[in-house]
Every structure is written in structure tokens, then in C-alpha cells.
Amino acid sequence: MKIHQISLFAENKPGHIAAPARLLAKGGIDIRSLYLADTQHYGILRMIVSDWQKAAGILEAHRFVAKVTEVLAVEVPDRPGGLADVLEALEGTGINIEYMYAFPVRGDEAILIFRFADPDAAIAQLQTAGINLLASEELLRK
Amino acid sequence: MDSHQREHASALLTEDEAVATAAMDAGVKLGAGYPGAPSTEIQETAATNCHPASVPDYIPLPELRELQLRRLQTVVALAWRQVELFRTRLAERGLTPEDIRSLEDIAKLPFTVKSDLRDTYPFGLFASSMKDVVRLHASSGTTGKPIVVAYTKEDVEVWTSVMVRCLAGCGLHRGDIVQNAYGYGLFTGGLGAHYGAEALGAAVVPTSGGNADRQIMLMKDFGVTAMCCTPTYFLHLIDRAAELGVDMKELSLRVGVFGAEPWTESMRRHIENMSGVEAFDIYGLSEIIGPGVGCECRRHQGLHIFEDHFYPEIVDPATGEPLPEGTEGELVLTTLSKQAMPMIRYRTRDITMILPGRCACGRTLRRIGRIGRRSDDMLIIRGVNVFPSQVESALLEIEGTLPNYQILLTSEQGLDQMEVQIEVTAQMSNDKIGALQELHQRIQGALDHVLGIRVRVALVEPHSLERSEGKAKRVIDRRAT
Predict the structure, then answer these.
(1) Which residue of B148, B186, B358, B385 pairs with B122 in a disulfide if CB–CB is 3.0 to 4.6 A?
(2) Where in the sequence is the domain holding B408, given as residue range(s)?
(3) Residues of B in contact with A44 (CB under 8 A)
């Protein structure tokens, strides 16, 4: 159920994302999703890629510090209320979302990526609520 | 040696005896810190760690000051007569040796700095002719020419006597087996410690540096009781001994005399816990004499300077103004009895202070605090003195390890700006912005607190900071000069 996400520290300067992107392209790595969290001076580039172990290896070999964390992917219908339904399932449970981001797939569905403080508790809660959690292979097929 | 020099040489030479006699006459309590020590009788008693060589350490203050003044006047006159650079500098200030009438007058004299030794390479600061010089030592000279130092027979004797006083102060005496792993050769460490330990009556094992396995074997097989080496080398021996299955605490080793580099109290605790030795800090520099300028006694409350031979001052590293006791600044030393190469007001670049009050051991010799940093490294930011080592210790405290960092100095509208750039390590790296910001703030807080000025903190990408020959370049100063 858990998806490996790669986070990369990047200074907030022109060209600083180009180098890792080029490296991953050369390594034949497909970036499935990408999210940039930024501050004035630096940012964190979060990626879900086709082969996280290979990607982390490539980045580390080129002296980037790649942090691998586990996130959850939830598939929802891409319509009003798609997100609200999921969040409702978590309400009142004390399960804390560290951060989340979303991206659409094939026009009628969307993928929500969640980083939970306690992913195991979140998995149990979401499954009880009948929410579809994607496994890694499923996500990459989308 | 001309008749003048001979006269001065004998004046300098006979004084140790005079000191000892004066001290005895004054009823100096030898080893007053140790119960049962004889008061007026000089006895070599292993049980009380008393050694006749330590007598000058307890000379009454008025006599010590008088002796220092007399020696200062003599050495200034010697340098003035024999060393052209010194004579020229005095002339520029309209001074002659006669202007030194009190110890305070030392502040009138010009400083000597390391580059003076390089500029006059090799023999330009010698005050003796080569027929009176019996030894030459030289620094490794990592940048350009080395610096050269010279000793007459009398200088070697003084050097030996202060080293004996160091080792006696560490509780060593005849019967001890001293393994000396300071490097023998051009470096003053090896021979300095060797002569001192031998003169003390100890048995010396002159291993010099290197070959840790053999060092440990000899330590064990010979029943070595004291080790002289750099603290980092001893740490290496501790680690290696553990690998070889040798428990240092089981050995006869009880004293470590560590110097030639700065080391910390936490290193001392680690060494003492791991090896069971009592660890002493010893201080010296080749320009002054080599090891033996100062050493801790068993109280471990600072290092006693053998100030009957080396006169200590603390000055403001920026202005050169003398600073009072208890105030931190740069240590300046004057050799009071050196003949071959007198050093007048030598800027050591070592930052320390003269500790107020008298040591509980009873020695009248003043003490300096342990040296942790050098003024070479000092930065002046908006009038505040800042050391890279302070930045280092703040970072170390936060992270537990030291990330690669760089200090960037710029000038904005005439105001100094200091930015500390820190490479994000794997340990610091995070997928959460909040965690990075929190780390950023913690570093900011620690640096503000330690430095006392507001600095900018920037987290930068790994391996983005400039390095030269694999070593990190710590300070980049882009301020207009």
C-alpha cells in the first residue's frame, strides 16, 4: 500500500531542478508525479518515479541527497467532493496529514498523495471506510 | 663569544641556581598541595611527587618579578646588540634597552611575528654566532620556507630544565618509563620531551611517531608508565589497542602528556575513561623554545607558564593593547633567557587568558587557560570578534556531526554581513518543509547565541560549497578592504 517518494533538497535558484531532471531522464526514469514545496530560499522536490531505487541510486551517485519516504496514494473520482469524501473518513480519528498533493489521471479520476504522520493507522482507517488505496504497481500503471 | 656575551651568558646561566637557593632560603613549601610534603627540606619523594627541579615553580612573587625584570633587561640588551631587525625597530620608536626600567615597560617594545622569522630566513634573528649554536630546528614549512630556530648549549639546558619541571608537575619522577611518541627530527617535540624525561631520571623509550601496533606492544611489554604524544595520536592508540584486544586500563600506563595541538575537555574525559591515564595538557612552540613553555599541574586548572624563562602577556589581537588578567586575548611571549635566538614579544596567535589567582598547587607561576583557538582565524564582524570554531561548535551541538559549511563575508552599505552557508546532509534532509524550517531556526538561534551578532543562515545543496584540494574553504571574505 505504501508508495516510495523521493525528496530532493534544492536551492531556490534558476536551473537547480534541471540537473536532477536531466539525470533521471538519462537513466530512463519516468517521473510519475512531481510536486515542489518551496520557501523563499529553498525548496523540496517530491517525486514518485517509475523505479525509485534506481532513481535514488542515480541521484546519490551524483552527490544529491535523496530522501526516500513512504506516502499513500488514493484514487478518487475527479468530481466535486472527491477529496472531501476521503478527508471525511479521517475526521475525528486524530490521524494527522503532514502534507498532500493531487494530480488527475485519464480525465475522470484523480490521485491524491498523502504523507501521514502514522501511515499504518491511516491505512487501517481508509480501508475501513472503503477507500481505494493504490499499490505501487497500480499507481505506476495509471 | 665576545666578553659582553660571555658576561650575559653567565648572568643568565647562574640564575637558576640563584632561584633555587632563594626559594629554599625563603622557606618555600614544596609540594604544598600534597599532604605530608616536606616544608623547607628538599627531598625527592616519590610518594609526594616532589622533585627538586620544581623548586623554581614556587619562588616567592616579589623575587620572581625582580628576576624577570633583570632577565628582561639582559635579553633586550642582547637582542638590541646582536639582532639588526630588533635594533632598527627600537630606533624607530626612539627606544634603547635603558628604557626598560620596569616589567610594565615591556609594552613599549615592538612585537615579533612569524613572518619576521620567514623574512630573515635562515639565520637573521640569531643573537649568537654559529660557534655557540649547538642545535637547529625548523618548522615543516607548509607554505614556502620553513622557520628556523637555534639553541646554544645554555638554551638546551634551559629547555631541558623546563621540560623536567613539566614532567615533574605531571607527577613523574625517577623510575618512570616514558614512551615518547612525539616526532624526533626537525620538529622540536621529540627531542624536547626526550631530554626532559632523561634529565628527570626517567627511562625514555624513544619510539617517535608511527607504527601503532609496536607502540602498544612496547607500552605493554616494557610496563610503560607515561606516554608523551599528541592527543589525537593517543586516541588512535586507544582505538587500535581495543582492536588488538589490549585493555589500556590493565597496563601500567598512568600519565599522558599531550600537546602540540589544541584539544578539549571532552577529549580529556574520553581519554581518561578509555585508558585510565591522568591526561595533562602541555604547551609550547618552536619559536619560543619548543615544548615546555607551560604545562598543567595535577590540579588541571590551566597551564602554568614557566615565567622565569617565558614572560607571558595577553593582548587584544586587533589592537595589540595589553589586556588585564582574566580577559581573553592573544598570548604574547618573551623569552627571558634565550641566547641563540631571543624572541621579544612574540605573537603566538593563540587565544587564551591569564587565569586570575594562585593555583591550589602552591606554585607562584601564573597560569593560562587551555588553548582552543588561534587569532589567525579571528574575523571581526561589525566590531565583534568571531571565530569559525564558534560556528563549528554551534553546528556540532545541533547536529551531533559537523556538516560542511562556509562563512561568507560581504559588505552592504558599509555594514559587514556574515552568512553561514551549510550544506544539507543526508541526516538533515527531509521531505517536510516545516522540518527544514525548524532546523534552520535552530541553527540560527544557536549561532546568534554563540556569536552575539545576527548572522544569516543559508541551507545549500550538498557539495555546492567551494573546496580547494579536497579541503573545505571555510571563510570567504568579499568585504572591500
Answers:
(1) B148
(2) 379-477
(3) 430-433, 436
